[in-house]
Amino acid sequence: MGSNWDWSRQQGRRKRIEAELAAHKLGLQFDKGAIPIHSLDGTMQSQFEKGWRSVSETDVRLKLDNNQTYMNVRQHLHEYFGERDL
Predict the structure, then answer these.
(1) The whole model's pTM is what?
(2) Cβ neighbours of residue 52 closer than 8 Å, sequence gap 6 or more
């Protein structure tokens, strides 16, 4: 894949997460099937859509929780194993 394809895929992920966060903040329903137009080039749009569809509920939750889930797991592992500094 070319770097432009990668960029379009990354933009799809970024735009989807931003859209979901905005909808959540405003208390609106989010329609993940309403994929916005990113490019009139079919290949670039296809890569954008792949990125859009690759976002999981976990990705969105991590952003909503400000990665607290990750920090909680890290703290739990630290308490359990006590090996590494936080």
Answers:
(1) 0.72
(2) 12, 13, 15, 16, 32, 35
